[in-house]
Amino acid sequence: MTEHTQYNKVICLGSAPNMTIINDWDTTGIGIIGCNNVWKGTDKWNVLISPGDYPEKGYLKSRYNRGDHRDPNKIYYTEKSEKSFKTAMNHYADKTWNRSAMYLGPSTYFALMYWCLYYVQPKYIGCLGLDMVYEPNDLGETHFYGKGYDIKTKGMPDLHYQIHKHFDGDFSVIDSFFERLDKLKGSTKIFNLSDNEKTILPWEHISIEEFQKL
User: Fold this and answer.
1) What is the pTM of this model?
2) What is the overall mean pLDDT for the chain?
3) Cβ neighbours of residue 86 under 8 Å, at least 6 residues apart?
4) pLDDT tens digits, residue range 119-144?
5) SS3 for the chain, per residue?
6) pLDDT value at position 153?
């Protein structure tokens, strides 16, 4: 655990279309911990994590972790990877973060939250861009950067594909991970900062202004 990852209040940031609203928010005093591609949508992040097989990890390491001109307020972490969604999710079912592994896909939400709870242990976490709603908008966009790779290649959200493939279509498995997060969070309070009414996150919705006042 390093000094710059110590935040009392954190926003965990994902790649949903609405993640870019963070650019208009006052996030003074809040640590922003993002995953995978969020660096392409905002410069406001402080910590970025991804699996070790993230295709742009070399570029990110070079840009943020090396050299005399690196930004001291930003750091990029690559974590060990799993090639199977099911294996990664099973890790989250019964292991602490230091014994778990990430997977590129819908398990990213749990990876990000577990990482934050294990390493940062903030008093408050706000979630944005992590609703796990993959319905394309009027422009066909499922992420802030456009149509997701899953829609292009499989014709369906990766969450649906993986749940059907590995858990026989039983979406209640997602609820079990939310329940585990609820047990693991201890005294940390988790909120949803998203404006997406279809979110599957179980956390109380509050505004960024309310989050600031906590």
Assistant:
1) 0.87
2) 84
3) 162, 166, 167
4) 899 999 999 999 988 777 666 777 77
5) CCHHHCCCEEEEECCCHHHHHHHHCCCCCCEEEEEHHHHHCCCCCCEEEEECCCCCHHHHHHHHHCCCCCCCCCEEEEECECCCHHHHHHHHHHCCHHHCCECCCCCHHHHHHHHHHHHHCCCEEEEECCCCCCCCCCCCCCECCECCHHHHHHCCCHHHHHHHHHHCCCCHHHHHHHHHHHHHCCCCEEEECCCCCCCCCCCEECCHHHHHHC
6) 65
